[in-house]
UniProtKB/TrEMBL annotation:
Lineage summary: Bacteria, Bacillati, Actinomycetota, Actinomycetes, Micrococcales
Species in which this protein is naturally found: Microbacterium allomyrinae
Name of the encoding gene: frr
Identification of the protein by name: Ribosome-recycling factor
Domain Ribosome recycling factor: 21-182
Function, as annotated: Responsible for the release of ribosomes from messenger RNA at the termination of protein biosynthesis. May increase the efficiency of translation by recycling ribosomes from one round of translation to another.
GO MF term set: ribosomal large subunit binding
Gene3D superfamilies hit by this protein: 3.30.1360.40, Ribosome-recycling factor
NCBIfam families recorded: frr
Location(s) in or outside the cell: Cytoplasm
Amino acid sequence: MIADVLADAGARMDRAVESAKEDFATVRTGRANPQLFQKVLVDYYGTPTPLAQLASINSPEARSLIITPYDKSALKGIEQAIRDVPNLGVNPTNDGNLVRITMPELTEERRKEYVKLVRSKGEDHKVHLRGIRRKSKDDLDALKGEFGDDELARAEKELDALTRTHVDAIDEALKRKEAELLEV
């Protein structure tokens, strides 16, 4: 039972760290990165559809992206969805077959705003990790009658170590993203 609680907590924390890394990837840096558009939803025949399902996204140069839709009728929707993305600051151009996006150079002020945004996202993900820890600790406390205090104390220490490891992983990803943002 204790092993099950710890294994479940570990799996959930692993997913939380992956989610944090994906979330960090959606924040714009100086380079054009197709991952910026992973969470963009396009209104496709009245249904919000992820951009990756509607088009291929390529980066031919460091500061430009080309989005080639599988269905040409989705061009206007894709263009509008990209224009509506907050904190991106790009203006897509549509030539009738594909959408071109040129990423403007980031100013120092804008870079600092993005660092604040990434730190905020990192803190949100750490709070989520702590929530997973709290729920797992409650699950361990519910086992009090079945197991001895020593076993539960040992399990709680393992849970704390697991949480610390995952928080450190988020901090490391955050540090890499900050360095990428501040790189000129």
